[in-house]
Design a protein that fits this description.
Radius of gyration: 18 Å
Number of helices: 9
Structural class: mainly alpha
Mean pLDDT: 75
Strand content: under 5%
Largest sheet: 2 strands, antiparallel
Distance between the termini: 23 Å
Helix content: 55-70%
Strand order of the largest sheet: 1-2
Low-confidence stretches: 1-29, 34-50
Length: 203
């Protein structure tokens, strides 16, 4: 069981105080911390997050392609991209859901009836036509994801990859709704920071 000090929790409390940081933003921070740890600690701290995997237009094409292949909801898309890359990359809910909303507004996807609260979307005729018009670019983007997954399989330790994927999804599932109490957010953030520090000290 993890043990963590009050100092770590207080440090996160002070960092968020007075800046409008809420549970939703902390989820994004958790996700970036997971990605930094998953990259061996080489991802810069703070605002420097390295090169984006996709720009906005590219991500729209990737999501539209995956939805055209099979009706999906937001977390399906996250999991599918993460699976394609062998756990090396997974877009955050804060990126996925606004992009889904934009695709819907553009008329490229439409909501389908589904059980439960999660919205599932399917591609429209206009969306499929848009994919056909950008077929070469779509193929290049999917190949980029698959190449990343192949590289990860060659270089990554599978047990660590599985553990990191599990951590990220557990944090997103628990805190993605924004209903977690602030004390829990700070506590989990402190746990992740403590683990990151332990990994960085390994020789």
């Amino acid at each position: 069981m993890f043990r963590f000090s009050h100092c770590g929790t207080d440090r996160h409390h002070r960092r968020g105080a007075g800046h409008g940081f809420g549970p939703e933003l902390d989820v994004e921070r958790f996700a970036h911390e997971v990605e930094r740890m998953r990259d061996g600690g080489h991802r810069p701290r703070g605002g420097g997050r390295g090169r984006r995997m996709f720009d906005g237009g590219e991500l729209r094409l990737v999501l539209l392609k995956l939805i055209a292949d099979e009706p999906r909801h937001g977390y399906d898309l996250i999991r599918e991209i993460e699976a394609m890359t062998g756990g090396a990359y997974a877009p955050s809910p804060g990126v996925i859901y606004p992009t889904i909303t934009l695709l819907d507004e553009m008329g490229f996807i439409e909501e389908q009836r589904s059980e439960g609260a999660k919205k599932r979307f399917a591609a429209t005729d206009a969306g499929r036509a848009h994919l056909a018009d950008h077929a070469d670019q779509v193929a290049m983007l999917i190949a980029r994801l698959q190449a990343l997954g192949e590289h990860r399989q060659r270089t990554d330790a599978a047990p660590i990859r599985r553990a990191m994927s599990g951590l990220k999804m557990a944090v997103v599932d628990r805190f993605g709704g924004g209903d977690a109490p602030p004390e829990m957010v700070h506590e989990v953030a402190a746990m992740i920071d403590e683990l990151a520090q332990k990994v960085e000290r390994l020789k």
